[in-house]
Amino acid sequence: MRRDPRNALGVALVAIVVAAALAGPALTPFGPEQPDFAATLSPPSSLHPLGTDDLGRDVLSRILTGARVSLLVGFGSVAGACAIGAPVGLVCGAFGGWLDRVLMRCMDVLLAFPGILLALGVTAALGASATNAALAIALVNLPVFARIARAQAQLVAAMDYVAAGRAVGLSERAILLTCIAPNALSPILVQASLLLASSIITESYLSFLGLGVQPPTPTWGNMLHDAVGFLDQASWLAWFPGIAIFLTVLGFNLLGDGLRDRLDPRSAKTA
Amino acid sequence: MRALVGRVLALLPILFGLSLLSFTLLALVPGDPVTAMLGLEADPAAVATLRAKFALDQPFPVRFGAWMLHVLQGDLGRSIQTGRPVLGMVAVALGPTLELAAAALVVSLCIALPAGIVAATRRNRAADFAVSIAALCGLSLPSFWLAILLILGLSIGVPLFPSSGYAAFTADPLQALHHLALPAATLGVALAAATMRMTRAAMLEVLPADYIRTAEAKGLTPRRVVWRHALRNALIPIVTLVGIQLGQLLGGVVVTETVFSWPGIGKLTVDAIFARDYPVVQGAILVTATLFVLINLATDIVCVALDPRQRAG
User: Fold this and answer.
1) What CATH number was assigned to the domain covering residues A5-21+52-270?
2) What is the pTM of this model?
3) A228 interfacial to chain B (CB closer than 8 Å)
């Protein structure tokens, strides 16, 4: 993983975004919601390296705070979906039967919705907020984890060491926890990394449409939404939050590709 | 044929599940959905009418059964805002969305097929590396940001294309193409990334095959070998992906239509969400998801038609 420069770039980009999310807001001299009506729509300068918006708020401070929101919603939605979807898939794949058929048909229904549409429907019903955006994105990701975990559990369940486990008298629960789950983890981890990228994009879509995190809390999506009204006067408002989303998603995609090459070489060959 | 019938029958529980989930969305609205739709200061008579219409005093299964009965008769209810039938509103919006999706698909294939083929035939050379980087960047690019950049560059910077609006093909084809250019480019570039990767991978699988070597030994030109023999056999995974993408496009258009004020089903859904017009939201989501499922079925059928091995199986 270290030898491929693309993987190194992915790790570096993700590390920078995580560091920015953790330490960034403490380092900037301006509050992300602090207006300065004497400096509205200022282009990038030494005082405001990424310029200011229509209320004179520092774009750099808002982007750094937005990183925290994007990562929180992204990690939260992927962790939630994985925590429910992976065990469901593992149980279905390992034991089959009527429970498998019922649960997988439910997952098929969720997969039958285009992702963004399902997320829109859920946030429309529950209301726009960071928690509801994370819930909606988790619901989109849930069947993906369930499907992958189920397929992997079916593969592992057919292995000789699982039969050996049964032969020495291990209970079904012990076989699931000690033989199947640990050996089915790699593709789930790879998928988690790739879904982080798509979850961050979906969160930015929802925020852009006004259905994610609500202003004045800055997110990259709602910053781009605000930028649309000032494209002819302040193009930097559209450039910098977009670059932040692009580099973050690129980082997680590169990281996911690298993890796949290392942990799941079979699927890497066909990707 | 038997497999096809089985595939169609397997869709029935999925379609039932889609309907149940679409209906449940209204039940998820916190508090009283009628108050959420009409507001706290709504006319009590209007509140009572809507409450009776949604049969909110009835248990959930009864309400769902009644709604389903109407849906099966093609009645998706009426818009709270306009009073018009939801099905009619969705049908009107579907035209521009399908136009946009078709144009985006054409843009995507025009970029992805040549680029994927070049990458595969020049494996591990500069062109392959460039295509891989471009595909990865395309996958990481949020489409609404690309839309904004295109507006900045080609509507505001160099005013070549309009930044919003729609013109019907039937009224003025040139104007229609003029308005279609930027939204189609936005969606097309986003789609091209994945298709490019798939084309490269599928071509790499096919190019070392014996029949390709035979075609070369017969003295066919490299262009003919690649386009007639290799691409034809690499098409199945590409068609599968394009079919999936066409379905995903129905969801993906939401943001692009909003940015470009394109009067399609995505914009209809978003506008209805902000107007709290839940019958329209339900109807638009149900129709879009049903189309998504049907497009996936059509993709399966096309793949069987393209692949004699699947026909035999």
Assistant:
1) 1.10.3720.10
2) 0.88
3) yes
